[in-house]
Amino acid sequence: MSTVSARLDSPEGKNPPQPVPRLSLRENLVGLAEMRRDQLAFLVRSVRTHGDIFHMRLGGLPTVMVNHPDYLQHVLVDNHQNYDKDNFLYRATRTVLREGLIANKGGEPWRRHRRIMQPSFSRSSVADFTTNISDLTGGLLRQWEEPAGRGAVVDVTTEVANLALRIVLRALFGVDADDRGRRFERDFLEVNAIAGDFFRFPFPPLSWYSPSRNRLRQLIREMDGFIAYLIDARLARESEKPDLFTLLLNAMDEETGTGLTHEQLANEILAMIIAGYETSSNSISWIFYQLAAYPDIQRRVHDEVDSVLDGRVPTLDDLPRLTYTRMVIDETLRLFTPAWQTMRHAVDDDVIGGYRIPRGTDVYLNLFTFHRHPDFWPDPARFDPERFTPEEIARRPRHVYQPFGSGPRHCLGKHFALTELHIITAMLAQAFHITRPEGQAPVGFAPLITLHPKGGIHLRLHRR
Ligand code: HEM
C-alpha cells in the first residue's frame, strides 16, 4: 500500500491537514510533453510514482489528482455539496453540451433538471425500452449475416455506434435516425477528438479563431441542426404515451411557473443523445473485442445464452439469469471504462484524507487508473470476469468500482445502459461466433473526452 493511502488511517482533525504533495517543475514540464504524446501512460506512471493524491499540472493547469476509493467517495458522495462542475474539463465540454445535465455546473438548475428527468430512467421505465433494444439489435444482426456468410471483416465500432444512436433516439424520442444520424456520429467523433486534444494542451482557447476552432464551431452548428430536425420531427407527430421529450416539454419550475426554454430543451436533448449512445457503443465494441480475444470466455457466454434463452429473443426477465454474460460486461467496464475521466471544483476549503484542498481547486478523478489500483485489483491489467462473482464483489470495498460514477451526479442512464449492453451481448452471442482477423495488431486506446478503441474494432463474424 502506498504511503499516501496509509494516511487515511490517521483520523482527520487529529493532525493538522498537510499540503497535497506537488510534482516538481521539471516533472510537470516532462509531464506536459508526455501527456500530449501518451496521456494514459503519463497518468499510469504518475499514480505509480506519486500515490493516491498529488498536485500536478494537467495540460499546464493546476489540478489535484485523487486515485483512492475513499477519496473518490469523499468528493462524489460524502462531501459532494462542496464539489461542482465549474472546472476546466466541464467548461471545455460546455462549449458543446451547453447547460445540459452532464456538463451543467451544478446547484439548483442542475437539481431541477435532474428531478424532471430521473423518473424516465428508473428501472421500471427502462423496461419499456427493452423491446426497442432487441428489435433494433435483431435488425443489425440480420444485416451482419451476409458479411458473416462470406467471412468478411466487420467494422464493429461504426456499426455499433449507429445501433446505439438509433436505440437512444427511438427509446427516448420515438424517432428513427436516418443518414443524418450517421453524419451526427461522424461529427461528434471529430468534436470528441478536438476536445480531447484541448484537454491535453489547452491552447489556443476554444473561443479563438484557428482552423481547428473554426471547424469545432461548424461541427457544433451541424449537431445543433440535427437536434432541431429531431425536435421538429417529434413535434410533427403525436406520441401514444408520454416520453422523455413530452416530460421535458411540459416540465414546470414550481417556483417560477415557467418551463424549459426552447434552447434548454434542445441542450438537454443533445446531452442525452451524446451521453446515451457514445459510452454505450464504445462499451459494446470492447465487449465484442474481449469475447474475440478470449475464446474460452466466449464459449461460456455461448453456453449460458443457449441454455437460458434456448433460441428466444432475450427479455428483461431473462437478464438476471444471464449471470456470466453480465460478469463479462462488468469486467469490460472496469478495464475499458468509457467515461474514463471526470473533474470537480472545490467550492470551499476542504480536507481529503488529511490533505488540505483550498477552495477553487480542480480535482481530477481518472477511472482508467482507479480501476487498475493494485491494492484492490490483483494483477489489475488481466481481463478476468471471475472478479465479478457475488463472493468477489462482497469481498471488495463497494466504491472501488464505479464505471457509472457515484453520488448525486452518478449516471442517469445506468439501468438503461446495462440493460442495453446485456441484451446486445446476449443476442450477438446467440447469433455469431466472433474472431479477430489473423495478424491483427492489438487495438489500443484513443483517449478522447471518452475512451475509444484506436482505429475502431474490426472483427470476423461466423454464423453459429
Ligand atoms: C456504458 C454506458 C455508460 C457509462 C459507462 C456512463 C458513465 C457515466 C458516468 C461515469 C457519469 C458521471 C460523470 C461525472 O460524475 O462527472 C455519467 C453521467 C451521466 N450519464 Fe452516463 N454512462 C453511460 C450511459 C448513459 C446512457 C445510456 C445515458 C442516457 C440515456 C446516460 C446519461 C447520463 C447523464 C444524463 C449523466 C449526467 C448526470 C448528472 O450530472 O446528473 N449515460 N455517465
TL;DR?
The protein has helices spanning 3-6, 25-37, 39-50, 69-78, 88-97, 107-117, 123-127, 130-149, 156-173, 179-200, 211-235, 244-250, 262-293, 295-309, 323-335, 367-370, 390-395, 414-431, and strands at 18-19, 53-58, 61-66, 83-84, 153-155, 341-346, 350-352, 355-357, 362-366, 432-435, 445-447, 451-453, 458-463. By secondary structure, the chain is an alpha+beta fold.
Question: What is the helix content?
Answer: 40-55%
- Tally the beta strands: 13
- Enter the CATH topology name of the largest domain: Cytochrome p450
How many H/I helical runs? 18
Structural class: alpha+beta
Estimated radius of gyration: 22 Å
The best one-word shape is globular
**Spatial sequence of strands, sheet with the most strands:** 2-3-9-6-4
Could you give me the name of the CATH homologous superfamily of the largest domain? Cytochrome P450
Protein model, in words:
The chain is an alpha+beta fold and 464 residues long. The protein folds into two domains: 141 residues, 2-Layer Sandwich (Uridine Diphospho-n-acetylenolpyruvylglucosamine Reductase, domain 2); 278 residues, Cytochrome P450 (Cytochrome p450, Orthogonal Bundle). The protein is 53% helix and 11% strand. It contains 18 helices and 13 strands. A five-stranded mixed β-sheet has the order 2-3-9-6-4. Strands 1-8-7 form a three-stranded mixed β-sheet. A hairpin with a 2-residue loop joins strand 2 and strand 3. The N and C termini lie far apart (47 Å). The relative contact order is 0.17. The N terminus is likely disordered. The site of protoporphyrin IX containing FE has 23 residues, from helix 13 and helix 18. It holds the Pfam family p450. One of its GO terms (molecular function) is monooxygenase activity. This is Cytochrome P450. It comes from Streptomyces glebosus.
